[in-house]
Design goal:
340 residues; mainly beta; 2 domains; 10-stranded antiparallel sheet; 7-stranded antiparallel sheet; globular
Length: 340
């Protein structure tokens, strides 16, 4: 078989043209191994969503071409007992941006996640089974929107969306540790790896708290934390957000904005030797402060500002957290003869 011949310069031009016009390798969609995406694996480990005993199904659902700054979309169905409860197992959606950063923006409790053949805006549709029923998720270029679906089989074949409004994502969930008298935590749906947590300390030591922070965090690591003891008049405010404009002993004003209302808290900036940062130390408030009623009824998003430096915050879970804290802190102190 004879092959065409080209002059040297012409051959180089042909090769360059061939590289430029050849289609890019097709992205692999469907169920994949987490080990094939090491950056995602590192992100999940850093956020507390990957433990030594974690078991999960990982789906690469899109995108063939970047859209809205998003290059890839991943959906994860956890399977291990530590990620499962009476309402199902943890299910999350993570996106990768064009700058290679990852963002967990959605979390459900459910079972049987499936990636469907149908696509919307460059990403495959999803099917999940939750305590709100069987739901179909369709990508809108930025995130999945969910609506009730009619379940027609394990494979997802024949599953069609009903003419119904989109349903909310994971609602308030409550976690109890240490028996009936132990710590109880409540939280809303995870949005951009942020959520409001509510805490009830049980009978010993008693009291409660509510805080805004990462979806998986301990109480003291919340960015904003209100804490109180039963029957005590004061609610302490801890802010674990550093500001580049703060120096030790500076006066500081922290403003929390909720639904058009602003709540200001005064204090002093102090250097925290434990974290090596200058953080606000604020004056305490009382349990009947209007911010708690605002948090109980708030929805959408708000913000927290330190001397004008603003951080946006979701209000997901704020209502349930405020209710739990108020109930835990409103309990009367033990009678004098029962105290040690």
């Amino acid at each position: 078989m004879r092959h065409p011949t080209y002059p040297a310069a012409g051959l180089a031009a042909v090769l360059v043209a061939s590289v430029l016009t050849s289609p890019a390798p097709a992205a692999e969609f469907g169920k994949i191994e987490l080990s094939t995406v090491p950056q995602l694996q590192a992100y999940l480990e850093d956020r507390g969503y990957l433990q030594e005993n974690s078991e999960l199904d990982l789906f690469h659902t899109g995108l063939a071409e970047p859209a809205s700054g998003i290059s890839d979309v991943y959906a994860l169905q956890y399977l291990d007992p530590g990620s499962c409860g009476s309402a199902g197992c943890t299910e999350i959606v993570v996106t990768r941006s064009d700058d290679d950063s990852y963002l967990l923006y959605e979390e459900w409790l459910g079972t049987g996640m499936e990636m469907l053949d149908s696509e919307t805006e460059g990403a495959h549709d999803l099917l999940i089974r939750t305590d709100q029923g069987v739901l179909t998720g369709r990508f809108n270029g930025t995130k999945y929107l969910w609506s009730p679906a009619s379940d027609k089989g394990e494979s997802g074949e024949g599953v069609t969306a009903q003419a119904a409004p989109a349903v909310p994502r994971l609602g308030q969930k409550t976690i109890r540790a240490g028996g009936a008298d132990g710590l109880v935590e409540t939280m809303g749906e995870c949005v951009d790896d942020r959520v409001w947590h509510g805490y009830s300390e049980g009978t010993d030591p008693g009291g409660g708290a509510m805080g805004f922070g990462p979806c998986r965090t301990n109480k003291s690591s919340n960015f904003l934390l209100f804490s109180c003891k039963p029957g005590a008049p004061d609610v302490t405010i801890d802010v674990n957000l550093a500001s580049r404009d703060l120096d030790d002993s500076d006066p500081v004003t922290v403003t929390v904005s909720l639904g058009g209302s602003n709540f200001q808290f005064k204090g002093t900036a102090l250097y925290d030797v434990m974290v090596g940062e200058v953080l606000p130390e604020l004056e305490p408030i009382t349990l009947d402060h209007p911010i708690f009623e605002a948090l109980r009824t708030a929805d959408g998003t708000g913000s927290i500002s330190i001397n004008g430096q603003t951080t946006r915050m979701t209000l997901s879970g704020a209502a349930g957290a405020a209710g739990m804290m108020r109930k835990a802190c409103a309990a009367p102190l033990a009678a004098p003869d029962s105290q040690p």
